[in-house]
């Protein structure tokens, strides 16, 4: 692992995720080169990052040991890809979630970096073997899928493809740990990775319960925010099972496995997420939180503030 002092990480793409990754890497003391193919976009992104970093410092929520000014001094914007990649040991791609676009980015990146540079994609749903299929040296490639917003929600999924070297996974895990993220390493690629597979399973059953008029949108969200989510903010489902029976997991399975299987077997088919049900559920949530930008922006700000406070509590 390269030393943070003087080490360079290039972030390709200056949108929301790219800006967040840049802030995370800056907090670890790395020099960050931010690149965007649209002229001037990376420079505009730095202005937004500067505002956020200063606000975080004011709120005493700035990550890392460096001050806001020290972190910002490590950040630069680039419209030229070769300049952005010069000296980098790790590249984090954050462009639009489109397979051909990402493939083209990594082909271009590979032309400007040495064999030892790790190439990482922020994709949330594309298979690593597809994203890196046009790269010549695929052994140094992996997915590092963050959770939005990654500055406050620290989980990052590290997903290999069949040719990814173990040392590359180790390098990425060590880097993510060093900059304060919470990396989880998948042992092989799978559609949806781990987080979205779990998330979609929850969404599907919540959708079915509302669609079948068992419960309202407001109340199913409370099931998570005031129930399961309270536990899951600190412990996962396997530990929950382990703690919820007097003698641990084996005791829990003895007590509940038949009931679990019975309930699970009653689940309906995978929802289509369209038609009358989608219109009704959309109407119901919009009555609680109107879908215009003013209300959505305010609610996102509230979400981020709550996540910031929760991150502080967990720390």
UniProtKB/TrEMBL annotation:
Principal subcellular localisation of the protein: cytoplasm
One Gene Ontology cellular component annotation held by this UniProt entry: cytoplasm
Keywords on record: Cytoplasm, NAD, Oxidoreductase, Phosphoprotein
Residues forming coiled coils: none
Top-level division of the source organism's lineage: Eukaryota
GO MF term (any one): NAD+ binding
A Gene Ontology biological process term: fatty acid metabolic process
Pfam families listed in its UniProt record: 3HCDH (PF00725), 3HCDH_N (PF02737)
InterPro entries hit by this protein: 3-OHacyl-CoA_DH (IPR022694), 3-OHacyl-CoA_DH_NAD-bd (IPR006176), 3HC_DH_C (IPR006108), 6-PGluconate_DH-like_C_sf (IPR008927), 6PGD_dom2 (IPR013328), NAD(P)-bd_dom_sf (IPR036291)
Keyword Transferase in record: no
Subcellular localization: Cytoplasm
3-hydroxyacyl-CoA dehydrogenase NAD binding domain boundaries: 9-188
3-hydroxyacyl-CoA dehydrogenase C-terminal domain residues: 192-253
E.C. no: 1.1.1.45
Enzyme's top EC category: oxidoreductase
Site (Important for catalytic activity): residue numbering on this chain: 145
PANTHER family: 3-HYDROXYACYL-COA DEHYDROGENASE FAMILY PROTEIN, LAMBDA-CRYSTALLIN HOMOLOG
Family: Belongs to the 3-hydroxyacyl-CoA dehydrogenase family.
Subunit composition and interactions: Homodimer.
Name the record gives this protein: L-gulonate 3-dehydrogenase
Upper taxonomic lineage: Eukaryota, Metazoa, Chordata, Craniata, Vertebrata
Gene assigned in the entry: CRYL1
